[in-house]
C-alpha cells in the first residue's frame, strides 16, 4: 500500500523574491506547490525550476481578480487540498511612500485591494 505523505502549499507571488525562495525550500522538502504571479514569463521560469523537484501548478494572474482566485482554489482542490496558504503577493505603492495627504487615491485603493482584500478573499474562498 502506498501512503501519500506529500503536503501542498499555495504561495501567491512566487515568481521572484521571498515567494520564490520559500517555494524553493518547500519543493526541496517535497511539498507540492500551487503558485501564481501576474508576469507569465517569470512564473513559467520559476515553475520549470521548481518542477525539477516537485509537482507544481503555476497559474498566471492577478490575486485581485475573482476568476483568477477561483482558478487557484480549483487547483488546490485538484491537489487534494491545502496544508499551507502563503499570501505573499503584494505591492508597495509609490516609493518613497508619500504622506497620506498626498497619496494618489487610485493607487492606495489598488494597494489595499492587493495587500488586504485579495488575501482575505482567498482565505474565504478556500
Ligand atoms: N522585500 C522586503 O524588504 C520586504 C520586507 C517586509 C515584508 N515584505 C513582504 O514580503 C512579500 C514579498 O516581498 P518581495 O520583496 O519578495 O516582493 P517582490 O520581489 O516584489 O515579489 C512579489 C511577487 O508577488 C507577485 N505579485 C505582485 N502583485 C501581484 C498580484 N496582484 N497578483 C499576483 N502576484 C502578484 C510578483 O510577480 P508579478 O509582479 O509578476 O505579479 C512577485 O512574484 C510581500 O508581501 C512584502 O510585503 C518584503
Explain this structure:
- The mean pLDDT is 95.
- 29% of the residues are buried.
- The protein is built from four helices and four strands, in the order βαβαβαβα.
- It is an alpha/beta fold.
- α1 links the parallel β1 (8-11) and β2 (32-37).
- NADP nicotinamide-adenine-dinucleotide phosphate is lined by residues 12-19, 36-39, 42, 62-64, 88-91, 114.
Indicate the percent of residues in helices.
40-55%
Q: What structural category do the secondary elements indicate?
A: alpha/beta
Number of DSSP helical runs: 4
Query: How big a fraction of the residues is strand?
Result: 5-15%
Ligand set: NADP nicotinamide-adenine-dinucleotide phosphate
- Annotation, overall tally of beta strands: 4
First-last Cα distance? 30 Å
Strand order of the largest sheet: 3-2-1-4
The helix/strand order is EHEHEHEH
How confident is the prediction overall: mean pLDDT?
A: 95
Quaternary state of this entry equals: single chain
Q: What is the radius of gyration computed over CA atoms, rounded to a whole number of angstroms?
A: 16 Å
- Report low-confidence residues grouped into runs of 5 or more: none
* Biggest pleated sheet: 4 strands, parallel
- Described by the principal axes of the CA atoms, the overall outline is globular
Quick overview of this protein structure:
The protein has 126 residues and is an alpha/beta fold.
